Amino acid sequence: MFDEVRANKIKSVFLITLFFGIIILLGLVFGAVYGSNYFGIGLAVVVSTVYFLVSWFSGDKMILKMSGARPVTKKEYPHLFHTIEGLAVAAGLPTPKAYVIDDTALNAFATGRSPEHASITVTTGLMNKLNRQELEGVIAHEMSHIKNFDIRFMMLTALLVGIITLLSDFLLRTFLWGGHGRSRNSGKGGGATAILIVVGLLLAILAPIIGQMIKLAISRKREYMADASGAILTRYPPGLASALNKIKGDPDPLVDKANKATAHLFINTPFRKNQKGVMFASLFSTHPPIDDRIKKLKEM
């Protein structure tokens, strides 16, 4: 279990490094367009910083609101509160706030920018269908996301995808409105300018797609790590394995207010299954195959 956690941490660091590489590359293209690498990288840094700060301090509240989550009291759901409190003590964390989504689908997620500003959300369908050990397994999985700072990591990757998309869109608009003219007037030949335009356009088009694929890859690896960490926390892998098996068999897994921006946060995809184009769709999946996750847990 500890090897699983260690291996996924290394892979995730490598993937997030690729993100920063894409942003720097976009900055260099901006610099080539406007005749100054310092200007291009500076522009990318300024835009990224402003976007990051605005989203960072309000991201968790926006996610909870978009998901239709509501805060609940200990009187309303005592078992949920006791489970969260007990696992928080076991993990050595402040007790996260408890939220519930009124939905028959079986799902849950954790969010927040730090353990001190974290919350765990479950659907009413999950509460109604899981037994005590299964619910502990799911909450331990989400608690592991908090303990491992996955909630911060995944918010960061979501922000980086947004930044890459924003910069790429700005770069594309620059070319469309003739912003490459400065590069042409700087004394470079027409061939070099044409190559720059082609490279810039390709980068502007492909960067958001590449960024989204990296984000989803990070999300999948973090799910494996949270499964392993959750099993360590409860010392009972069959609990989470059984819960995932019930989630897998959910006849209506659609969480009504889930969307593509929040899907990677849930313990399993909150959308209905799509049987078409399985191999291609797997590249854009927010979660690893649930059968693989169950298998790994049973082997622990």
Task: Explain how this protein is built.
- The chain has 300 residues and is α+β, with helices and mostly antiparallel strands.
- It has 2 domains: 2-60 and 152-215, no CATH class; 69-150 and 218-299, Zincin-like.
- Helix content is 67%, strand content 6%.
- The chain contains 12 helices and 4 strands, in the order αααβαβββαααααααα.
Give structural attributes.
300 residues, Zincin-like, elongated
How would you state the average pLDDT, rounded? 81
Instruction: Count up the domains.
Output: 2
Strand order of the largest sheet: 1-2-4-3
At the first level of CATH, what is the class of the largest domain?
Alpha Beta
CATH topology description of the largest domain? Zincin-like
Number of helices: 12
**From the coordinates shown, what is the CATH architecture of the largest domain?**
2-Layer Sandwich
Q: Which class do the helix and strand fractions yield? A: alpha+beta
Distance separating the two termini? 7 Å
State the order of secondary-structure elements, H for helix, E for strand.
Answer: HHHEHEEEHHHHHHHH
Name of the CATH superfamily of the largest domain: Metalloproteases ("zincins"), catalytic domain
Helix content bin: 55-70%
CA radius of gyration is 22 Å
**DSSP E strands, number:** 4
Q: Mind describing the biggest β-sheet?
A: 4 strands, mixed
Shape estimate: elongated
The amount of beta strand, in percent, is 5-15%
Poorly predicted tracts of residues: 275-280
